[in-house]
Amino acid sequence: MRVMEAEAMGMCFGVRDALETMRGIERPAEVTVFGQLVHNPPVMEEMARRGFRQVEEAERRAADSVTTPQVLITAHGVSDRERAVLAAGGREIIDTTCPLVRKAHRAALALAAAGFFVIVIGKKGHVEVRGLTGDLPADGFAVVETQMGVRCYGAERLGVVAQTTTVESMAREIVARVWELNPDAEVRFVNTICQPTRDRQAALERLLEQVDVLVVVGGRHSNNTRELVARARQAGVRAVHVEGAGELMPEMFGPDDLVGLTAGTSTLPETIAGVKMRLEALHADPYTTAVVSTAERHCGV
Question: In terms of C-beta distances under 8 Å and separation of at least 24 residues, what long-range contacts does 292-297 make, across chains too?
């Protein structure tokens, strides 16, 4: 069995910066995390051990449930309205919103201010999407997950933005469908898919062309991790989604398999390293496992 790593995978700078901020807090018991800082079980366990309080994501609009003097806004961001409610109670806000999520917020608001009906491509109910739409007029936006969700909106101007972890090919298909069903409308697409997501998607496509099985490392609730799994299966490659090395079993792989390895943007480097070591060890006896890069494979190594 051989293991091939994606050229781009794992933690993005937004998640890394949020973790650094969290780990620098001296009195965790005085901080409520407004949702999940990242969709990553080891990080959540670390925060619980340190004494952070947390408002579950399903209850994130319940600002009155925050009883600590400080509140930490996660990398997924919140709407300005929600931020104002949190601040109104006299709480100090520790804001770890990813800059690229902020950029998407600004794009949606700018489109609305210019008179566009805003279409947000993303997962309905996802915390980032809730933040993106929270400052828009109630009748001035729609959230679309797939082409099937697109309709004729009856508006002269349609502005489209995307959740930052959206698959780019899917976003462009949705935009094309918006054009098709709204032929008389002015359609403006502001591509707010973040560069780390694009890099990881491109690396995944290169990997899928070469491997027999894909191992995807990341939290069960991580949207971008699930997208990696879904894309592999769509391409006809068997995908194994794990949160850590302990979930990998020998019977998952054959001795001649070329196994691809990638990870979601909230996955810790040490978690990826542990999975890689486990893969290397699975068939070490009697088989020899080699680790190669996609660049080496592309060059015929």
Answer: 292/2, 292/3, 292/4, 292/5, 293/4, 293/5, 293/7, 294/4, 294/5, 294/6, 294/7, 294/203, 294/206, 294/207, 294/210, 295/7, 297/4, 297/210
